[in-house]
Design brief:
It is a single chain. This protein has 301 residues and is mainly alpha-helical. The chain folds into two domains: 59 residues, no CATH class; 197 residues, MetI-like (MetI-like fold, Orthogonal Bundle). It has a two-stranded antiparallel sheet. Helix 5 crosses helix 10, helix 6 crosses helix 8 and helix 8 packs across helix 10. The C terminus is likely disordered.
């Protein structure tokens, strides 16, 4: 902002000038809209054929649309056990998220505070599953679990949690790196107990990070194929196994489309829920504090 010589610049003038500089230009907005539209089209293109195949009984080349409409694909998917498989995948995803998220959060907090000896070595061990091929890591741990006579379902959960922990640890380390401990210290100074500090200060501040970590852990349990096949031995049929089995055959396009869309919906709905309700998470009023102090945390998106 240009100011005539000799005129005094007030704080309001500085604020107005800064807002003017930070105001997005129309060209930038247009570019962002175009890029967002192109990305939306790019991600929607593979979904459109699946949605059409879901309601198609027959679709022969080169017809642009199905030649016969119907729901035989959905009926076949239900007959093959899609509903129980969907439930197993959902339970696995939720259980893995419920276990891996707090474990990753505790490990990340300890590493961030520097209360762990040899933090680099510990971080390397926690992130090691990401560097190893999935088949190698699963086979090595499977031998140990089989010799310990761990039940198949429990072994699957243990291995899925081990596969999800690197994601939760990394996500929560980023969250704790930006976490301000002064809020917790002030709460203790005002007389808050550890329980109140945990539930009314700490968890609200790290809630967006916990949401991201839980979402990634859920994806690991929901979409896994290798661990369920190798460790479950074909006794634990999940939705990814049904999708792979149907895709390996010929003439199952409608069934594959129904199963694939069913596999997409829960993560997408969970992402929308987290984006809708996790944008602002204020710190609750502390007991004994004269005036409420809150800090809004940015949400999941």
């Amino acid at each position: 902002m240009m100011v005539p010589y000799g005129q005094r610049v007030t704080p309001d003038d500085r604020t107005t000038g800064a807002r003017g500089l930070m105001r997005p230009r129309p060209v930038d907005r247009t570019v962002r809209v175009i890029v967002a539209a192109l990305l939306a089209v790019w991600f929607a293109l593979p979904i459109v054929p699946l949605l059409l195949w879901m309601v198609a009984d027959r679709w022969s080349f080169p017809a642009p649309l199905p030649t016969e409409w119907g729901f035989s694909g959905a009926a076949s998917a239900v007959a093959q056990g899609a509903v129980p498989a969907f439930g197993r995948s959902l339970v696995l995803g939720l259980v893995v998220a419920a276990i891996a998220t707090p474990l990753g959060a505790m490990a990340a907090r300890a590493l961030t505070k520097g209360s762990v000896p040899a933090p680099r070595l510990v971080s390397g061990i926690l992130l090691a599953p990401l560097a190893l091929p999935a088949f190698v890591a699963v086979m090595g741990l499977t031998v140990v679990l089989l010799r310990a006579r761990v039940p198949g379902l429990v072994a699957v959960v243990i291995l899925l949690v081990a596969a999800a922990i690197p994601y939760t640890v990394y996500t929560m380390r980023v969250a704790y790196a930006a976490h301000d401990m002064a809020y917790e210290e002030e709460a203790r100074t005002l007389g808050a107990t550890r329980r109140h500090v945990l539930w009314r200060v700490h968890l609200p501040l790290v809630a967006p990070g916990l949401a991201r970590a839980a979402f990634l852990a859920f994806l690991v349990g929901w979409s896994d194929y290798v661990i369920t096949v190798l460790v479950g031995g074909g006794t634990i049929i999940t939705l990814p196994l049904l999708v792979a089995g149907s895709a390996a055959g010929v003439g199952n396009s409608a069934v594959v489309a129904v199963l694939s869309v069913s596999a997409i919906l829960p993560p997408l709905l969970l992402l929308l829920v987290l984006g809708r309700f996790g944008r602002r998470y204020p710190v609750s009023n502390l007991p004994g504090s004269g005036s409420p102090r809150s800090r809004s945390a940015k949400g999941f998106l």
